[in-house]
Amino acid sequence: MSVTTNGHNKALVVGEAALTGWRGKLGHEIAKPVAKRTRFSVEQVEAAIGFAMLAYAMYRLARPLVRAARSEERLRAGR
Predict the structure, then answer these.
(1) Does pLDDT of 1 surpass 50?
(2) Residue 31 domain-assigned (yes or no)
(3) Does residue 74 form part of some domain?
(4) What does the alpha-carbon distance between residue 48 and residue 12 come to, in Å, rounded to a whole number?
(5) Is residue 2, in this structure, part of any structural domain at all?
């Protein structure tokens, strides 16, 4: 993982940082063949995979919260 200061590379760092544990191992293994077949570098592919996994995790966290807030609104409206 490379650490630099411009915006493009910060995005790479954040995406790569999301790849930890078994997801990281899987992401690193997937990134190599994808990078060979595309114009993107291994780091860019890893960052994209990391962002996708991070977005999915945030969705899984936010979905029940939104659902709970909506059901609370419905309960208050019914009173």
Answers:
(1) no
(2) yes
(3) yes
(4) 8
(5) no
